[in-house]
Hints:
The complex is a heterotrimer of chains A (362), B (311) and C (334).
Chain A: E1 32-43, E2 46-58, E3 63-67, H1 74-82, E4 90-97, E5 100-101, H2 107-113, E6 118-121, H3 125-128, H4 135-147, H5 151-164, H6 170-173, H7 183-195, E7 201-205, H8 213-230, E8 233-238, H9 241-247, E9 250-255, E10 258-264, H10 265-270, H11 275-283, E11 331-333, E12 339-340, E13 358-360
Parallel strand pairs in A: 3-8, 3-9, 6-7, 7-8
Antiparallel strand pairs in A: 1-2, 1-4, 4-5, 9-10, 10-12, 11-12, 11-13
Helix pairs in contact in A: 4-5, 5-7
Chain B: H1 9-13, H2 26-37, H3 45-67, H4 98-134, H5 136-151, H6 154-165, H7 169-196, H8 199-207, H9 211-247, H10 259-268, H11 273-301, H12 303-310
Helix pairs in contact in B: 3-4, 3-11, 4-5, 4-7, 4-9, 4-11, 5-7, 6-7, 7-9, 8-9, 9-10, 9-11, 10-11
Chain C: E1 4-5, E2 14-27, E3 30-44, E4 48-52, H1 59-67, E5 74-79, E6 82-83, E7 99-102, H2 106-109, H3 116-128, H4 134-147, H5 164-177, E8 182-186, H6 194-211, E9 214-219, H7 222-228, E10 231-236, E11 239-245, H8 246-251, H9 256-263, H10 303-307, E12 313-316, E13 319-321
Parallel strand pairs in C: 1-3, 4-9, 4-10, 7-8, 8-9
Antiparallel strand pairs in C: 2-3, 2-5, 5-6, 10-11, 11-13, 12-13
Helix pairs in contact in C: 3-4, 3-5, 4-5, 5-6
Amino acid sequence: MTVSPGASPTGxxxxxxxxPAAAPATPASPLLVVxxxxxxxxxxxxxxxxxxxxxxxxxxxxxxxxxGESGSGKTLTALSLLGLLPMGARTSGSVRFxxxxxxxxxxxxxxxxxxxxxxxxxxxxxTALHPLLRIDVQMTEHVRAHLGLSKEQADERAIEMLTAVRxxxxxxxxxxxxxxxxxxxxxxxxxxxALACEPRLxxxxxxxxxxxxxxxxxxxxxxxxxxxxxxxxxxxxxxxxGVMSSIADRICVLYGGRVAEYGATPDVLGGPRHPxxxxxxxxLPSASAAGAAMVxxxxxxxxxxxxxxxxxxxPRCEWAEERCRTVVPTLRALDDGRRLACDVDPLVExxxxxxxxxxxxx
Amino acid sequence: xxxxxxxxxxxxxxxxxxxxAAPETDAERLTRQDRAALxxxxxxxxxxxxxxxxxxxxxxxxxxxxxxxYPPNLQFGPLTAAPSHxxxxxxxxxxxxxxxxxLYGSRLxxxxxxxxxxxxxxxxxxxxxxxxxSAGAVDSVIMRIADVVFAFPGIILALAIAAALxxxxxxxxxxxxxxxxxxxxxxxxxxxxxxxxxEYVTSARLLGSSGWRTMWVELRxxxxxxxxxxAALDIGNAVLLLSGLSFLGLGAQPPTAEWGSMVAExxxxxxxxxxxxxxxxxxxxxxxxxxxxxxxxxxxLDPRTARMIRK
Amino acid sequence: xxVTANDGGPSGRSLLELEDLDxxxxxxxHTPVRAVIGASLTVGVGEIVGLVGESGCGKSTLGRAAVGxxxxxxxxxxxxxxxxxxxxxxxxxxxxRSLQMVFQDPYSSLNPRRRVGRQIADAIRLGTxxxxxxxxxxxxxxxxxxxxxxxxxxxxxxxxxxxxxxxxxxxxxxVLASEPSCIVADEPISSLDASAQAxxxxxxxxxxxxxxxxxxxxxxxxxxxxxxxxxxxxxxFGRVVxxxxxxxxxxxxxxxxxxxxIGAIPKPGAGGSLPSELTGxxxxxxxxxxxxxxxxxxxxxxDRCRTEDPPxxxxxxxxxxxxxxxxxRRAGVR
Lengths: 362, 311, 334
C-alpha cells in the first residue's frame, strides 16, 4: 500500500461505465431496480412523504452513490429496501431485486433476502456490533441460520471473511470482543459480517462518516476491492462528495425526498446540472480559493414538516422562477445519459437537453 | 382522537401510478395506542381524576366550616349511631359527627403534608446538590447520614423519633421530615452528578461562575423537574405517614380530628364500621390522587415522552 | 522535545503560549497514559492556528489544557504572559475570562432550561465584570446575536427550538459576550451538517479578522482548516509532528504522517482515484512504540527511527517537522 499523495491506487481506476477492469454495469440485467419508491410517515402534522417517487437502479458489480443531506430521504430509502422501516411508515412503488418484488413481502420471505442477498452496514461501528458477544458468535449466528452450516464451517467462513477485510491475525480476532478493536477495525468486522452470506448487494449507510480520514481511505479501498474481486454491488449512502467521487460509478443526488440528479459520477460531479448539486460542489472547501471564504448554499435543508411546494429546492436556488414554486419538476433524461429534475436547467453550457420523455412521474 | 384515522392512508398521500401500499399492520395499531399514552396530563384520564380529587379536597379543607353540619369536637349526638340522614357518616363513641370530623381532618392532613414535603424537598435537594457538586469528603458525610436514615423502614424510624420527641403533632411532622429528606438528597445528588460534567456547566465555569452560582443558576432548572415529581408522589406518602403516626397515638392528640387517629378509634370499635371506614377512605382517595398525578407528571417530564408530547 | 510552532502571529505578540506541555491521565495500578507530550505552540493576535489530527492524537486534550480545564503534568500554558491556572474550586480568575472555548456539540454547551438571551447576558456580566442593568444587557445581547447572524428577537427562546447551526451561533455569541482575546474552538463544526459547517467556519474566520482575536481551531477536517487557518499544527499520538504556514505544509508536507493524512483525503472531482491508505492503527496509548511514535506505520522509516526519538527539524524558518529524515530546505526551493 503506497502512501504518497496523489499517486494512483494500485488497482484499476474508477471511471464511469467505460472503465475496462471494473465489473461493468449491465443495464440489461440490473441487480436492483427501484421505481417510484415512496415512503410516507405520520408526523404530528399529518402524513408526509419522506421519500417521494425515487427511481434508480444498480447493476451487478457496480457502486452506486446516494448523496444527500439530512432530510433527503437517503436512509429511509435504504431501510425500505430491507423492510426495516419504522412503525407506521407506508410504502408504495416498486423495488425489484433480481426481478423479485421486495415491497410487501411477508416477513419470512423478507428474512431470506435480508442478510443473505442484501446486507446492510450502518454508520456507527460502535453500535453495529453487540458489545457483549464474542466476534465469532456474532459473525456465525446468521450465517448458520441462513446457510445451515456447522459451527466449524461457520468459523472457517468467518476467518475467511476477516482475512478478506484485512483484519490482522483473524484467528485470534475471532475470539475477541468488539471493545478490543478500534473504530476502523470494528467497521471492517461489520463489513465482514455483512459479507458472510455472500450477498449480492451491500448497502453501506454513511460507513465512514464516524471514522478518521486515513481509516476511511482503508475502508473505501476495501469496498472497491470487494467489488472487483467478488462482484458485490454496493449502494453507498453519504453526504461526502469526495467519497462519492473516489468510489461511486454512478451517483444519485437526493433532495427533499426526490431525485435531483442521477448519472455517471464524473458527469454529475464534474459538470453538475442541478443547482443543488452545483451548490454542493461550490460549498466544498476546495472549491474556493485559499483565503477566500467558503460558499455554502444559503438556508438549510427542509424538514419533513416544512417541505416547500413545487420544487423542494426552490427557496434556496438562485435561478428559481415562478413555476418552480408550484410545479414539481419531473425527472428527465439528458443526452449524456444522466437524469435531471429541474425545469429551469440554468447550468447547461451551450446545448439544451434533449426533450426526452420524462422517465418517471413524481 | 386525532383525525388521522378518518381518511384512508392512500387518499391522504394521493399516491398514484403503481401505488401498491402495504396493508395495515399490527405496527399501525400500536402507534395509536402509544400516542394515547402520551397525551398531556390534562388529557389523560387518570391524571384528571387525580387532579379533580385533589381540588375537591382542597375546597373541602377551605370551606369545611361551611360544609360541616356540626362542629367537629361537639359531643352532641347519640353515641356510635349508624349513618343516617342526620349524621351522614354516623357518630363515634363520644357522639361526635364523623362526617364533620372527616371534613375538618382535611384541614390538618393536607396542609401539613404539603408543608412537610416542601421542607423535606428543600432540605434534601440542597444537601444532595452540595454533595454532588462538591464531591469528596462533603459528599461522603452527607450521603452516609442519608444512608443511615435509609437503613430504617420509614414508619419505624418516624415512630421512634416521634416517640422520643414527645407525642405531639408538631413532633410527628418533624419526624416525617427527617425520614423523607434522604430520598430528595439522593435524587438531587444523582442529577447534579450527571449535570455537573455537562458542557454548559463547563462553559459557565469558564466564564467565571462560582460554585454556588453554578448550582443555583445553571443546575437548578435542570434538576427541578424530577425533584418536583418526587415531591408530588411523596405528598400522598406524607399523608400516610402522618396518619400512621396519629393512628399509633404519636401524632395528633385527642380530641383533634385527624384521619389517622380516627382510624385508630375505628379499630377499637370494629362493629361500628363507619367510625374507621370513612376516614380510611379519605386517606385512600388523597394518596391515590397524588399517585395518579405524580405518574402523569413523571411521564410528562421524561425527556423521550415529553418530546413526543410537545410535538 | 517537540516541534515549536513559534511565530507569534502577524503582529508578533503571542496571546497563548504552550511550552513543552505534557498532559497525562492517571490510571489505577498502571503507568499514566500520556495524552500530550512535549507540545509547544503559540497563538498570536489576529491569527488562526489550526490544530489537526485523528482520533487519539491528543488535540482535544491539548485544547482543554490550553484553556485551563485540565492541569498539565509538565510544561506550562501562558496566557498573555501569565501562567494559566487550571479550574478548580473557586471561580475562574478575571484575568483569564477573556480566554474562552467553543465546544463541539452546540446543544450541550447551552443550558437547555434557560432562555438563550439570559445565558448571553450572564456571559456579559460574568465575563467582563460589567455591572449593567437589564435594559443595557438586552441591547447588548441583541447586538451580539446580530453579529453572529441571528435576529435579536430570538433571545427569549430556548436552545431546543433552534437547529444545530443556529445553536452554535448562539454559543459563539455567548463567548463573544465575554469580550475574549483568544478563543479555543474544539471541533466547532463537526456536529453540524454540511451547509452549517461552512457558515460557521466563515463566521469564526470573520470574527477573527474583524476583532483581531487569536484562535486555536481544532478539527479533524483538514479541508476546512486549510481554508481558514494561517498556520497549521499536525498532531499524531500525543506529539506535534509538524507545524508551519498552512499553504506551505499543504503543498509539500515535510512529515510522512502529514503526507499520509493529506493523501488519504478523498478529493471531489479527482476523477475517481481512490485515496491512499495509511496502514496500521494508532497504537495503544498504554504501550507506545519505542523511538519515533509514528515509525510502525511510516513508509519511510529506517532503523534509527525505532530507537531514536526524533528531534524537531527546522525545515524553514517557522516550519518544523518531527522526523529524523526531514531536512532543512532553502525557502522556496524543493
